[in-house]
């Protein structure tokens, strides 16, 4: 009888441990209460978390950012040249007006993209700016995902719903990535973290 009870206890412990391991596998890190998934499915392909961190403005936490790629990359050129789908996912940590958010995005592109590339994607930049007109405010907990799917283009979702037509040029997607990974990134510590390196 004692042996039977021990076996039951061992079985229960195994089930409990398996459950905890599965829960841990579902997300890689917890940033300011936001659980960052270890993987993401984009264009029917499973991507791995390359890196994640918090965007700070002065002392304020603005959003979490997570970069997903098919394979881990630790340098900006490798990320920009990476084949296959990619995702950058932002989760808001505070309320921000769409005007301020849009301005920050456009400033990031202005600071990090050369004139030649900007001239190639001017129409896509205009359409990208228009999407913020449909979102009056980004609130704490809102999720903005920007996906690159080869042969399709850039797809942008806000809380799981598409908010823009597909934008076809990879130069445009790389311009977006340079907001965080360019020579003048939005947050230099966040850039390091997105590249999977310790800050």
TrEMBL record:
Q: Which UniProt keywords apply?
A: Signal
Q: State the organism named in the record.
A: Collimonas arenae
Give the signal sequence positions.
1-28
Q: Which Pfam families match?
A: Chalcone_3 (PF16036)
Citing just one GO molecular function, the answer is: intramolecular lyase activity
Q: Where is the Chalcone isomerase domain?
A: 28-196
UniProt key word Signal: yes
- Name the SUPFAM superfamilies on file: Chalcone isomerase
Q: Does the keyword Signal apply?
A: yes
**What is this protein called in UniProt?**
Putative periplasmic protein
């Amino acid at each position: 009888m004692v042996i039977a009870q021990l076996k039951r206890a061992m079985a229960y412990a195994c089930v409990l441990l398996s459950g905890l391991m599965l829960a841990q596998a579902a997300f890689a890190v917890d940033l300011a209460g936001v659980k960052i998934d270890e993987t993401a499915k984009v264009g029917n392909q499973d991507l791995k978390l390359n890196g994640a961190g918090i965007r700070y403005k002065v002392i304020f936490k603005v959003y979490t950012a997570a970069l997903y790629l098919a394979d881990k990359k630790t340098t900006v050129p490798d990320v920009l040249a990476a084949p296959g789908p990619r995702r950058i996912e932002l989760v808001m940590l505070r309320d921000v007006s769409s005007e301020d958010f849009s301005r920050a995005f456009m400033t990031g592109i202005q600071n990090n993209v050369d004139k030649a590339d900007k001239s190639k994607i001017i129409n896509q930049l205009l359409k990208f700016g228009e999407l913020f007109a449909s979102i009056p405010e980004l609130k704490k907990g809102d999720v903005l995902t920007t996906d690159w799917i080869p042969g399709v283009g850039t797809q942008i979702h806000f809380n799981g719903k598409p908010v823009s037509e597909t934008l076809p040029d990879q130069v445009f997607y790389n311009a977006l990535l340079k907001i965080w990974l360019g020579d003048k990134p939005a947050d230099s510590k966040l850039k390091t973290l997105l590249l999977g390196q310790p800050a």
